Amino acid sequence: MKELKQLNSAQVRRMYLDFFKQHGHTEMPSRSLVPVDDPTLLWINSGVATMKQYFDGQVVPDNPRMTSSQKSIRTNDIENVGKTARHHTMFEMLGNFSVGDYFKNEVIPWAWELLTSDDWFGFDPEKLYITYYPEDKDAYNLWKQVGVAEDHLIADKENFWDIGQGPSGPDTEIFYDRGQAMNNLPEDDPESYPGGENERYLEIWNIVFSQFNHTPEDTYEPLPQKNIDTGMGLERVVSIFENAPTNFETDLFMPIIEQTQALSAGKVYGQDKTDDIQFKIIADHIRSITFAISDGALPSNVGRGYVIRRLLRRSVVAGKKLGIEESFLASLVPTVGKIMQDYYPAVLENADYIASVVKAEEDRFSATLNGGLNLLNSVIDEVKAAGETTIDGQTAFKLYDTYGFPVELTQEYAEDEGLQVDVAGFKAAMTEQQVRARNARDTDNGMGVQTGLWTDFETPSEYVGYTDLEVSDAKLIGMAVEGSYTQSATAGQKMVDVIFDRTPFYAEMGGQVADTGDIIDNHGTVVAKVVDVQHAPHQQNLHRVEVLTELKQGARYKLVVAAARHHKIEKNHTATHLLDQALRNVLGGRTQQAGSLVEADYLRFDFNHFGQVTPDDLDKVEEMVNEQIWAEIPVTTVETDLESAKEMGAIALFSDKYGDRVRVVKIGDFNTEFCGGDHVKNTNELGLFKIVSEAGVGAGVRRIEAVTSAAAFKYLQTRADLAAQAAASLKVTQLPELPKRLEELQDQLKAVTKENEQLQSKLAAQAAGDVFKDVQTTTAGSLIAAELNVAGMDQLRQLADQWRSQGHSDFLVLATEANGKANLLVAVSDDKAKTVKAGDLIKAISPAIQGGGGGRPTLAQAGGKNPAGIQAALTQAVEFLNH
């Protein structure tokens, strides 16, 4: 038996990547967890998720052989984290990929070499088992040829990779036998086999042979090009090399667990199963939180931000179960950074910032958690006061959903008070929420159907729009109509795509919209209109045109960009760079672009920022941009290699998009950025810059919309006209006096409002003097019920306060009509609330006013749209109390 090598996580990762680099693969960087230009994904959730554009044929990679170690997040099984050996929210997926290059004949021998060669992983072949798709005889024969024993090859009909529309095909999975000592089942258990639900046979690698298109018609057609997609979980493989019982006892997690152990109230990892779950939850979740924030996501109540918030709250609750009462998660961030420093140095470099975000969120949740405890204690008191023994499921779910209380924690508090929790009701509420979430989620995370159109079209096309907006002799070298190549297109056809050997039309990219314009024949006739331009798989500019007369393959045409629109776009693109830099200068270096849109009429700029942007900061940003415009700074561009551009200090927005040669746009000494877009020659061409709006649009993402040049002047002119109209209405002769006049009017309004409230209170008090004298007798107790002519619910509540302090009766039911609506209020004395709750009474009588309401056992209120039903509601109150 071969002795197992001792490799740590950094060594395993590097060995895998180096192996495939030696076999001609390009090492791709681990991309941001926040997907770029992929709205179908909440997070990057696998290695292949970053390769979709290559596999569905949208883009042809520089090298069809690629390898990566991709950080990923999945939260569909978050409740299992800590309870199992291998569930994680964040993990790393090692992978090697082939786009139309090698296939089974190459990848299977390579896989066996990597796994068993002494130069690489050096696993004992006797420890490896392979599953394959029963109909995939090629894979079966190839595994036998490389030396896999027949009794280590297992046919499994589940070995077919298919996530819906797009590439699919059979796969083969590789399992490592950890021995019966590691198993959680008896050796003769039906599930104790490679591929079964057991801990002995650990799945470490899945190799997918993408050879079919799963079409919209639900058929499987041969792919134009066959692909290889593989995935090896780093955490699992490291657990083998480090002989760890679970993934958590590896160098990827143990430093976090050990630090948490030191912070706990004497808890020791490995001594108590319940405590171990809390240690694992914290270790797993802080990794996800740290990396997500490092990649630009921030805590919030929606989308990715909610995921971060939920993970953090689960971690805080786990910490409390370990006796950690103070904020502690922020102190774990540098530990995560040190563990991952070998491959992800940016995490440790940004540890202070990440920790500050975690600390602020943790402190905020601690206050929320205390609020949840207050609510829980109130619920416990009410349940006891009512003589009941169970906290209902909806309340338990509210504690979980709003305050982050796991139902187990609610149960613990309830048990201390001799109560139970309706767990079935909690689960029903949870299921309802999950159904709502699934219905709201965009589940289209499959790849596009691979058509092959333009994939094999490699004829180059030159973009000359940086210097020329007209080309007089462009040759039409490729044309397609409705998904098929053609030699000609006729008048009226609107879905025509064409490629020219030279073009001045910009293809949409980097937030800048595409150019539009005309295609003109040699007679000066406009034969087609360019309405959009995108990139073909080999990066040629692909023009979507509306044909007016006729287009022919091989013919030459004059191409003319709509110059006025193009120049507006240039101004807004340069303004976007100025805005980006100004935000960094004013708000701090952590601010970074999260997306942009450069149109002819306006620009939109999204940026990551933790916190609000104050009006004062916006004024500083706007002033800084305009200062650069009025300074008349030359805007220059240079094309250079990637490293030289970085040495110039160029800002890289999404570094994984850049090739070996890059274009850098430089605005004097103020801003230097990677950019392939169009820009003005001098900032003075912008004339003026004006921010139109600023708001939050997502998880830690702010959005600014702005205008330049003539659009900025028109915006300011409109505002000036509105101010002049307001001044005229208020009879203000000088515009600077308008704010003072508005302030005076506000003061007058406050005084009138206060006087009105005082009068209403007096009227209510007068009305109460008569109302409180009319006391009725009911079976349940004494009752005062009346309709009053007061201003609304506030006055009814004031009367209820007087009634309670003076003890006029056991029950009070008041009603009033205000603004065409009916208002009802029910108050119950403290003694009677033990048998008759105000909320029950309000629910019984509010249908009479076509409304609904609720409240506490001693006070409830309702509103309705039928004031005519008020008397009926009062009558029903008497009937309710007489039963």
TrEMBL record:
Zn(2+) binds at H573, H577, C675, H679. Residues 7-718 form the Alanyl-transfer RNA synthetases family profile domain. It is found in: Cytoplasm. It is an enzyme of class 6 (ligase). It catalyses: tRNA(Ala) + L-alanine + ATP = L-alanyl-tRNA(Ala) + AMP + diphosphate. One of its GO terms (biological process) is alanyl-tRNA aminoacylation. Binds 1 zinc ion per subunit. The keyword Transport does not apply. Its EC number is 6.1.1.7. It holds the Pfam family tRNA_SAD. The keyword Ribonucleoprotein does not apply. Residues 735-762 form a coiled coil. Its cofactor is Zn(2+). GO terms for cellular component: cytosol. Keywords: Aminoacyl-tRNA synthetase, ATP-binding, Coiled coil, Cytoplasm, Ligase, Metal-binding, Nucleotide-binding, Protein biosynthesis, RNA-binding, tRNA-binding, Zinc. InterPro entries: aa-tRNA-synth_II/BPL/LPL, Ala-tRNA-lgiase_IIc, Ala-tRNA-ligase_IIc_anticod-bd, Ala-tRNA-synth_IIc_core, Ala-tRNA-synth_IIc_N, Ala-tRNA_ligase, Ala_tRNA_ligase_euk/bac, DHHA1_dom. It comes from the Bacteria. PANTHER family: ALANINE--TRNA LIGASE, CYTOPLASMIC, ALANYL-TRNA SYNTHETASE. Consists of three domains; the N-terminal catalytic domain, the editing domain and the C-terminal C-Ala domain. The editing domain removes incorrectly charged amino acids, while the C-Ala domain, along with tRNA(Ala), serves as a bridge to cooperatively bring together the editing and aminoacylation centers thus stimulating deacylation of misacylated tRNAs. Catalyzes the attachment of alanine to tRNA(Ala) in a two-step reaction: alanine is first activated by ATP to form Ala-AMP and then transferred to the acceptor end of tRNA(Ala). Also edits incorrectly charged Ser-tRNA(Ala) and Gly-tRNA(Ala) via its editing domain. Belongs to the class-II aminoacyl-tRNA synthetase family. This is Alanine--tRNA ligase. It comes from Limosilactobacillus equigenerosi DSM 18793 = JCM 14505. The lineage of its organism: Bacteria, Bacillati, Bacillota, Bacilli, Lactobacillales. The gene is alaS.
